[in-house]
Design goal:
Porin, eight-stranded antiparallel beta barrel, 10 strands, single chain, mainly beta
Length: about 220
């Protein structure tokens, strides 16, 4: 693991520990489950033209109260990222799978009624669990490991995540949530020393449920 990644992991771990301590004094957390899709691509200088690639995103979350309408929103998600090549005789795509861990400040807007909006911002770290290239041409398709194609996929991706959502109370304390998030990656996805700087960009659209525990 690189020296630049270790401080990010330490900051995230300390943030979670402090949040758990504060949450124990200020009320119980919200637990949630979400499922949705992502629209991902790659960004960098002097690179081929990329186009967006659709993917899956699913996981669980927890929102711990900190102060007033502010919570810390975290969790684990399976997230498919990557890109497609825009100009190619083949239908070529790069698929990179991650386990994603965000630690976001979440502000719940104080409004009356069943619909409650919120906004989120903070760091996110993702651990790469799979990487492959796929090609399709004239009905024939194949997949290839990234290392075989010359891409040394980085094991960790660090970035910033921002977004907004709404929670709609449907039954007692349970709410249905709809969230839109944008992930801005900082880490070069290719860990080779002479690799061009290529970073992840991804939108996520999530539908889920959320309910309080330990009240």
């Amino acid at each position: 693991m690189s020296h630049s990644v270790r401080p990010a992991i330490l900051v995230l771990a300390l943030s979670l520990l402090c949040t758990l301590q504060v949450s124990a004094q200020s009320g119980g957390p919200l637990i949630g489950f979400h499922l949705g899709g992502s629209v991902a691509t790659l960004s960098g200088d002097d690179l081929p033209d990329f186009t967006s690639k659709m993917g899956l995103k699913a996981g669980a979350s927890a929102a711990f109260p900190v102060s007033g309408n502010i919570r810390v929103h975290t969790g684990l998600s399976y997230a498919e990222k990557g890109t497609k090549l825009a100009d190619s005789d083949f239908d070529e795509a790069l698929s990179i799978d991650y386990i994603e861990l965000p630690v976001l400040l979440r502000y719940n807007v104080p409004v009356a009624g069943a619909v409650a909006p919120h906004f989120m911002l903070g760091p996110a770290i993702a651990f790469q669990i799979g990487c492959e290239f796929t090609e399709e041409f004239e009905g024939e398709s194949g997949s290839f490991d990234c290392e075989d194609e010359g891409l040394e996929a980085a094991s960790v991706d660090v970035g910033v995540m921002a977004g907004a959502g709404i929670a709609y109370a449907v039954s007692g304390p349970m709410a249905v949530t709809l969230q839109i998030l944008y992930n801005f990656g900082f880490t070069n996805i290719d860990s080779a020393e002479d690799a061009d700087d290529i970073v992840n960009r991804a939108w996520s659209f999530l539908l889920g449920i959320e309910f309080p525990i330990l009240r």
